[in-house]
């Protein structure tokens, strides 16, 4: 049996510095001594723990949630993130925790994000998507008005309608080589975007509204061998003067 000793402060509070984390189901006995008297209590680690920081929130917790910053979804979250999972909803939108988050990082083996899953994170400036991601549904990340840029993971092949609608502050967009189609208003009102990089050798199918209200000086960079193809492709041709080699 190991013994750890700590001293109490003026208020009688103390912290016992364990050398290692105790494990599930293990008993810990804490004994206090004062003026010859002793008192002991027994603590037990839960035998079946849950959670453990699956959703991590940083920042200040004073006046919660007004001053939170980064939200991280840990590696324990896998597979599909269901529709509306993290969406501020209805009349409570202005008070929802997610409207105050400043960034989102998804670390787990997430392969699909369903419609409206993260809609309306109006204060978030940064989004980090996992490399495992393959499918993003419509409206999943719409109305991120303060987000500054976006990188789409390499396995994503399609951006559906209204998926990243209203990213008014975003400066840069990166689209991987696998992208084959971009739906209506997928990147509508990217009013501040300076640069779009699209790695696809074959121009993805887009509609006339896929990039509606794009900043008038935004440059579109594509593989050098594909510049002419993009300039001639349906709906891409409207941006022909802005298309140049990476």
Low-confidence stretches: 46-52
How many E strands? 17
Mean pLDDT score: 88
N to C succession of SSEs: EEEEEEEEEEEEEEEEHE
Pfam families: LRR_5 (PF13306)
InterPro entries: LRR_5 (IPR026906), LRR_dom_sf (IPR032675)
Protein name: Leucine-rich repeat domain-containing protein
Please name the defining characteristics of this protein.
Leucine-rich repeat, LRR (right-handed beta-alpha superhelix), 246 residues, four-stranded mixed sheet, 17 strands, single chain, LRR_5, 27% strand, mainly beta, 1 helix, 2 domains
Explain how this protein is built.
Pfam families: LRR_5. This is Leucine-rich repeat domain-containing protein. This protein has 246 residues and is mainly β. The protein is built from one helix and 17 strands. The chain folds into two domains: 1-49, no CATH class; 55-245, Leucine-rich repeat, LRR (right-handed beta-alpha superhelix) (Alpha-Beta Horseshoe). The chain has one helix at 227-232, and strands at residues 27-34, 37-44, 55-59, 68-73, 79-81, 103-106, 110-113, 126-128, 135-136, 149-151, 158-159, 172-175, 181-182, 195-198, 205-206, 219-222, 243-245. It has a five-stranded parallel beta sheet. The chain has a four-stranded mixed beta sheet with strand order 3-4-6-8, with no helix packed on it. A three-stranded parallel beta sheet has the order 5-7-9, with no helix packed on it. The longest helix is centred in the last third of the chain and has 6 residues, at 227-232. The radius of gyration is 25 Å and the shape is elongated. Residues 46-52 have low confidence and may be disordered.
């Amino acid at each position: 049996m190991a013994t750890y000793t700590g001293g109490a402060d003026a208020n009688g509070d103390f912290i016992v510095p364990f050398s290692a984390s105790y494990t599930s189901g293990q008993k810990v006995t804490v004994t206090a001594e004062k003026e010859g008297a002793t008192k002991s209590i027994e603590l037990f680690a839960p035998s079946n723990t849950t959670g453990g920081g699956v959703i991590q929130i940083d920042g200040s917790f004073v006046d919660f949630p007004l001053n939170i910053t980064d939200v991280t979804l840990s590696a324990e979250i896998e597979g599909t993130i269901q529709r509306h999972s993290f969406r501020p909803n209805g009349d409570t939108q202005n008070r929802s925790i997610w409207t105050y988050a400043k960034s989102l990082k998804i670390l787990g083996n997430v392969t699909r994000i369903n419609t409206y899953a993260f809609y309306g994170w109006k204060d978030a400036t940064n989004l980090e998507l996992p490399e495992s991601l393959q499918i993003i549904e419509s409206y999943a990340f719409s109305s991120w008005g303060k987000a500054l840029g976006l990188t789409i993971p390499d396995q994503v092949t399609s951006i559906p309608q209204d998926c990243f609608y209203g990213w008014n502050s975003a400066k840069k967009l990166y689209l991987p080589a696998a992208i084959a189609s971009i739906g209506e208003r997928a990147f509508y009102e990217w009013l501040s975007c300076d640069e779009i990089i699209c790695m696809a050798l074959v121009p993805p199918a887009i509609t006339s509204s896929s990039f509606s209200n794009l900043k008038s000086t935004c440059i579109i960079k594509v593989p050098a061998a594909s510049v002419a193809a993009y300039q001639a492709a349906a709906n891409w041709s409207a941006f022909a003067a802005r298309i140049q080699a990476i």
